[in-house]
UniProtKB/TrEMBL annotation, chains A, B, C, D:
Domain Gfo/Idh/MocA-like oxidoreductase N-terminal: 10-127
A family per Pfam: GFO_IDH_MocA
Species of origin: Streptosporangium canum
Domain GFO/IDH/MocA-like oxidoreductase: 147-318
Lineage: Bacteria, Bacillati, Actinomycetota, Actinomycetes, Streptosporangiales
Keywords carried by this UniProt record: Oxidoreductase
UniProt-listed InterPro entries: Gfo/Idh/MocA-like_OxRdtase_N (IPR000683), Gfo/Idh/MocA_oxidrdct_glycsds (IPR050463), GFO_IDH_MocA-like_dom (IPR055170), NAD(P)-bd_dom_sf (IPR036291)
PANTHER family xref list: BCDNA.GH03377 (PTHR43818:SF11)
Identification of the protein by name: Predicted dehydrogenase
A molecular function GO annotation: oxidoreductase activity
Keyword Oxidoreductase: yes
């Protein structure tokens, strides 16, 4: 290897399924595109099975494998812990890592409950006092088009905001025969579409507008109340690559319809109850006075990963759909009506967020780049000793919105204020 | 004129602004494209001003002018009364016309209150027993793409319905300087965006799905609470052609931002309070189990007349946007995933609803054709002695949804059942 | 009827199939939307069959029927002759009408040959000296979006023009079993896709750019060289409504695949040779230096009536597709790259060409409105005593382009200058 | 590092600008997503400047740097030579590498002349006899949507092909002040838009259709004939990231408008002649009977990297635009007309080419992935001892099309057969 006189930053990652794979690609690539002040080193990967973790480490480019996350945290060559496990283990790992003086990136949703998220946010606050930083991985903020939307709203180009129309639409469990994977189990996932993808669109909406959701009125529904049990092997063997979810967690990314034949008991298909939401709808009010309409569902047939948001302000509007992630649609309402209209800005110009690092105009980026950008921002913040964003407090705020949605749905859709921190 | 041995059907229309102009075009055109069992005759037009009504009658092709709608109803050569006035006069005119044995077409919303709508529905029910028929003019049902959507849902091509995502977005009052026209006054208009355009999208959603909205949770907002008074002349002089509304009512269609300088008192601009909603959002449940998300607003900058609806079912999805009214997007979820996707069906094939009467494939229709279709269906029903649809009862049902939305919004967004008739 | 003190303008129309139907709708509607200086009167309709012509006149609103076009021209109550027949009769009728002192609107292409077109243009030139005017009916110039495109190019908003990319794509004869209707016969139609739809896109391109095509290099092809003969009845009985063509001519508009069972001789299907082009492609140079790429075909499966044109200039670009006729896409290249992009202008604002006469923003127009606009412009020009556009000379210019295309295709695609008049 | 018992495959790459950066990313990533039979090792990078090449090697992940490509070829740890230089050096390097028994990947266009390409193809043919393989890097074949298009055409889903409509539109030199970078110099680049991007779209069209272009009729144009000389530093210092080209060659990727202040002589801006085409248009015939229309330009303002292709066949049509690279539009003409239409297939399903290796449905890929796929296919072929595609013979065929285009343009657009090999 050619000498590199920058200091190194050792990374330890926990989990290697869908999220672990995409985080690995980001760690592997970030240094070739961004001129970082430190050199990230992919030091060690944590998992449960020795064999599987070692194989994953080899394939994904990690120098070592650990089968206990406590050992991973304890390694001297690890300064950053990247948590890619399901939500039920986030709090324990993150708090321990911060306590050990390791910076933390944690996948979203921050936790499976407000209480856990509060504990994590408190730990992060305490660690920050010691120069140890934490970030929650809402990667969609790092879509160049989303970052550009944020920039334009912040610059006042939309004027006073009136409407936010936000949806996250998928269709991977529309088939009632799709099995009861961990994402459909409250114990593991916390909630259903709400926490998995609703959390993303809530964060994205708050990020773009720079406003907070102050209260919500909600409906949730479980369309398919009973599903075949996932086969014994479905959990870990399902490859992240084909998991039809925007899942975040390693060790259990989704499972696939094809591979996930339900368990069979005496010839009958064994089924289990789905105890999370299939869809969540809510309307709400933002701190700046805008109205918001939100929807998260895994039953929108034909919509694969449609994180969509439209913002209407007095001076203009913006529209985005992740299915065409390199485009941001902008209506400039200050132009004469005869020449105004939504314009398709291809967000690949050198002046666009993150874009100068990549390819010439019109040569678009993909899903994984959002993680590369996230990690670039994280590394730069950590190296500079400043707090990366979004913080655990931001993650907690999203968690409180999720809780308000569930509370409203459980209380006749009554308008429910989001608890302040 | 060349002899025509069909019986005639004399039409009397009240109102000649935006809705009156488009209804006139429909009456004028329908016979050239559809082979009707009777020949509609544009007998007389009703308005308040002798001069203006006469001029309108001449320009729009009506044989006579009346300045009292009672006289219009009483004419022997009038068998159909077509009501194109604002909502506050619908009940009185419609009930009188039905009592006089005249068939009635009435613009939407049926009335400005549930009570009025109930009286109208009762009158229509009674009249039907005497062979006299009434229809409420939800013209968007007659967009070929919307009628096709209804057909496909009814045929079961979407399977079980899970989601309805419906919006009616306009932007014509986003400017706070836009004056206080009648559509922004509760006394005349009943409500704001909710009744004007929300009514349309509610009817469209119920029509396409064949399901009823059973309950709603709502938020409404008036973003601009005080507006310049419309100049003395703004009401009637504003030409319907430039009125930036989907308004329905004659004698006062909207007014324009440009022409509508506010009244001035001692040099200061006189203003008045806006007492209707600028926007209404609600979520709800359909009778068949689907969840619905609705939004009606006149503040969605860049959206001109975006009546949009997407329906997701277990076997497929449909999407429509009136701004591209000749297109229906269909996702067939029964196809292999590798070749499925939303397809753009250009609804101009001879097999499509209404389309065979017009032009070859790809030669699209416009807004006014929805009225031509509506009148064609009405004339055929009346000639056949059967009830046209949507009935006044259907209009009442929409009115009850509007009332539930307002009740929910006034009660902390609590889920509010739609009252059954 | 209510008194109207404007002078009348009597119209006599020849032909009542597809083009006759759409022209009738325009004559019927124009006065209700545009404030014309004269009142058009639909005086008489000309056709060959007494019975059919009378029925058409009744249905389409013409006051009388004539079975010889010479008689129609001779009528005292006819001041305008509107020619909606196939191209092989244009010259004779138009020249006679002009000689008789009648203004003429003639469907496109102006004629089936350059020689005929020259004779017509000469007759028009002579008539103009007597205050008698002629126009060729390139209706697509009157799409509001196309007229807006012309306006913006003329204003210099595109800067120096570099590229014109123009296509007219249909698919109605892709099926080899589609019969040999008159549009596929050189004797009647002059040419195939080239003259029928290629003529439109040539005129549209020259109109928008304000430049002339100076020379072309071309390929033409007849993919299906032999087709079933159209049944005896296919010619006249095929209704224009379902004819899948942008046909212009009456008495035989297209025929339909369904209705057009081929003639049968002794049990075998009788076939005939197709002696026109199925598709024509050419590249060329415009007078201002732009390069042009053109394509006209009836074999572009899935494209129904896609008259498309994109123009790229140094300061901006425009794109249009008739399948979304209410939209004009505009890229303003003078904006900073970071915020530029093609914007979708919905061409329904009061400031847009023709739009103020119709409905509020977002309430789109349809195919037939292009004819209403055309007739409005024609009537205004005739009433003002000025020459309407496009003139027969313009029609001749298009004819010369068509001739150059055919000449190039016949001569090894050699670059062939368009003959100057 | 964790042990990996697969054999290694040592890579030596020449050039490190735009193409070198993207190839590096592909070599770096391919093993983490595809289960390769060998382990690629990024052994050495070749460039001219010691310092710059070493820095690039460090940033891009190459283990060593060489300043003479002959030394790179000679290294024992190099089994593959990846050529990312401008076209004028391709022949010399490739032929030497093949002679040395090294497999070769060479960027496109294969060479700057037919003669060079012939020599390269001959060398590749000879090497293949010794088990040494060569591939030309037409990366757009490896867009999943393009590969899917090829699959569907090969399966006969489009029936008989009638039309190919292909464009490659960019706008990065529309500004006359953009300097005379190497891509605008015949000596370095061979030709202008034609060879740079026209080559891509020719290959893509032949790949998708499985047919060869047999002859063409062409026009080329240089709109801006004189440009400022690029500053002394413009060549190598311009970063590939911002080079607004689809360029392929290292050592000189494009230069940017901003950074490229023209050279100044005595206060005046020194200019030079542009001796390549700014745009090339041609029409042609495919071996299977389809007509083709092609356009390559860098003056299509607003189009950033619009490699577009539409194919119309008797049974269906396909449309693709690289600016929305994850979508393939498919019209199935065998469906009933009433439900047919172009459908947007998001090419991210596990069943789609290459897609299973990446992310769940709807999580799109970017530009660089096409190179990862290309290298994956190359490595698999080399490991299996079979010839990778496209071969140098395929590259030569494209070169012959380019030559025919230039010959036709120089000979009055005469139809010019493409020479057979």
């Amino acid at each position: 290897m050619i000498a590199d006189d920058r200091p190194t930053l050792g990374i330890g990652m926990v989990g290697y399924a869908f999220m672990g794979r995409v985080h690995s690609q980001a760690w592997r690539s970030v240094g070739a595109f961004f001129d970082l002040p430190v050199r990230p080193v992919m030091a060690a990967l944590g998992g449960r099975s020795k064999e599987a973790t070692t194989a994953a480490a080899r394939d994904l480019g990690w120098a070592a494998a650990e089968t206990d996350w406590r050992d991973l945290i304890a390694r001297d060559d690890v300064q950053v812990v990247d948590i890619c496990t399901p939500g039920d283990s986030h709090a324990e790992i993150a708090i321990a890592a911060l306590a050990a003086g390791k910076h933390v990136i944690c996948e979203k949703p921050l936790a499976n409950s407000v209480a856990e998220a509060e504990a994590m946010a408190a730990a992060a606050r305490a660690a920050a006092g010691r120069g140890v930083h934490a970030m929650v991985a809402f990667n969609y903020r790092r879509v160049p088009a989303v970052a550009l939307a944020r920039r334009w709203v912040a610059e006042g180009r939309l004027g006073r905001l009136h409407h936010v129309r936000a949806q996250y639409l998928q269709d991977w469990i529309a088939d009632p025969a799709f099995p009861l994977v961990w994402r459909l189990q409250r114990e593991r996932a916390g909630s259903g579409a709400l926490g998995d993808i609703g959390a993303h669109v809530i964060d994205t909406a708050q990020f773009i507008t720079g406003e907070l959701l102050e209260g919500v009125s909600a409906l949730t529904e479980t369309f398919v109340k009973e599903r075949p049990l996932a086969g014994a092997s479905a959990g870990l063997s399902a490859t992240g690559a084909t998991a039809p979810a925007d899942g975040t967690a390693d060790g259990a990314a989704g499972g696939t319809a094809g591979g996930a034949a339900g368990g069979t008991v005496d010839g009958a298909v064994a089924t289990g109850a789905v105890d999370v939401d299939d869809a969540a709808l809510f309307i709400g009010r933002f701190s700046g006075g805008a109205l918001g309409s939100f929807e998260a569902t895994r039953f929108a047939t034909g919509r694969k990963n449609a994180l969509r948001i439209e913002v209407n302000g007095s001076k203009g509007s913006l529209a985005f759909d992740f299915e065409a992630m390199n485009e941001l649609w902008f209506h400039d309402h200050t132009l004469p009506a005869a020449e105004a209209g939504f314009r398709r800005v291809i967000v690949t110009e050198a002046e666009h967020p993150y874009a100068a690092a990549w390819w010439p105009p019109g040569h678009g980026l993909g899903y994984e780049h959002t993680f590369t950008h996230e990690i670039k921002d994280f590394v730069e913040a950590v190296a500079a000793g400043v707090a990366p964003a979004p913080s655990f407090a931001d993650g907690l705020r999203v968690q409180r919105v999720l809780a308000a949605v569930e509370a409203s749905a459980a209380d006749g859709s009554r308008f429910t204020p989001v608890e302040e921190s």
